[in-house]
Amino acid sequence: MIDACLIETDAYDRDARAKALTGPAVETLCEKGARVTPHFRALLEDLFAICFKLRVRVREGGPRSAALNRRILSAVLQADGIDELRASSALDPVRAASGAMGIARAALQELKKGEALTDEELLDQAALAHAEGKLGELDELARSLPDEPGADSMRRRIERERERQQEQVDDLASRVDRAMEDLPFLERRVTQATARAADALEEEEEAARAFTEKMGVSSSGSAAERLELAEKLRGNDKLRKLANLAGAFRRDALAARKKRVRRASSEVHKVGRGAELSRLLPAELSAFVDPRRKLDFLRRMAERDLAEYELVGADRGGRGPMVICVDASGSMNGPRELWAKAVSLALLEVARRQNRCVEAIVFAGREARLERFSLLDGKKNRGGRRVPQLPSLLDFATCFPGGGTDFEKPISAAVEVLESAKMKGGDIVFVTDGEAPIREGFAEDIKWLQKKHDFTIYGVLIDDPSVAAKRPAPGAVRPEIERAARELRKITDRITTVHRLTSGAVKDLFERI
């Protein structure tokens, strides 16, 4: 394989490069670049080396098909802003990778315009790279032949083929060299991208810091994770809006739960029958010390037929997993999707403080695949609390399949999560703005599983904010919402209908869960 890298690197540089230049964003950019020029990944790696290394040395030689890379690297090294860029990114793999991707992206955009090089000239580059690869294979084959008289015939055949291949390489290389003689548009674009790169690094780093802080996750991830975050935030207003909304909702959720600190988690509700000694009525306790009634007391205790206080409270005390099902059908697009995901992230912070696992399920129609994200798994920090996973959070935040609405499939998947958990007392939060039928047999199965595994299902129905704003009767709901609520009541323990997309609309949910 041809080594098209033109910047000298050592083992430390290559290790940092391998850790930073990975992930979906890098692979996507390299795939796009490979369709235009044959050595685009090598160009990206060289740009990383320029940004990362304290001392840059361009190696002599290299494949002739890398002539375009050499011109781009030369323009970068002569750009006015290169010293500032290198000063801010040296020995920082994330900054170096981000700066390299910015310059490589600008070069690729200019090449795609067709003004710097024509399609025919770009094809000549690809053909030259292929021919050089064939030449290398022939050299490797010649070296592998045994030093025996019987191999002389094969060696001569290889030499003849090599001469023919070398002529093709020379012809293509001369055409490529002529195309490289004058590239003013490309060099100007690369120079401008280099000059802007240092300021862009500061802006991206500040945006990433604000995002992780508002989302409640650590900013000290791997180099690849931090680079992926910077790339996803680049020009993505949706993620920035979600981060702002989630930060506010997290504060409101935690404030709503603070009111439970100074009161008991349960209170006397009524008198019932049982055998819990701490809740027995005084009249029953007196029977235990009366010799004439003691035997009857013990019999009724064995039968759990003693009069006792029954307690009820908002805090169920369960610490089983939390599964959040978010509707991503077409009607949820826009403010409702952002609100639903902001509520989900606020619940994630509540669950983190309760040290519970959290899984999010994004659903749409019956034919659409369920998208599942483990937001809080078994990984814990030094304090023993579970740590939100940034890659999963980003995937969850950007996932929106669209389509119709189906209730049964996501509910079944959520129940499977709770069934597989070792702890009881889990919660399912089901957020939707649509309607879908729930079969009676399915509802009966879910209710039976609820009793068996002791979990609660909370439904959150989002009414259309635009319709709600014009509705004359306070508290009135649309017929579609009424039908959806009627279906969800078959399986849920509590339903909250939301008419205003604020955190206060689900304050009761934040308190109870």
Detailed description of the structure:
- With 513 residues, this protein is α/β, with parallel strands linked by helices.
- The protein folds into 4 domains: 11-117 and 183-233, no CATH class; 121-179; 267-312, no CATH class; 322-512, von Willebrand factor, type A domain (Rossmann fold).
- The chain has helices spanning 11-20, 24-34, 40-52, 67-77, 82-89, 93-113, 119-144, 152-179, 184-215, 223-233, 237-258, 282-288, 294-302, 335-353, 390-398, 408-420, 440-453, 465-470, 479-488, 507-512; strands spanning 267-274, 306-312, 322-327, 358-363, 371-380, 386-388, 427-432, 456-462, 494-498.
- The strands form 2 sheets. Strands 6-5-4-3-7-8-9 form a 7-stranded mixed sheet, sandwiched between helices. Strands 1-2 form a two-stranded antiparallel ribbon.
- Strand 7, helix 17 and strand 8 form a beta-alpha-beta unit.
- Helix 9 (184-215) runs parallel beside helix 11 and helix 11 (237-258) packs across helix 14 (335-353).
- The longest helix is centred in the middle third of the chain and has 32 residues, at 184-215.
- The two termini are 58 Å apart.
- Residues 314-318 have low confidence and may be disordered.
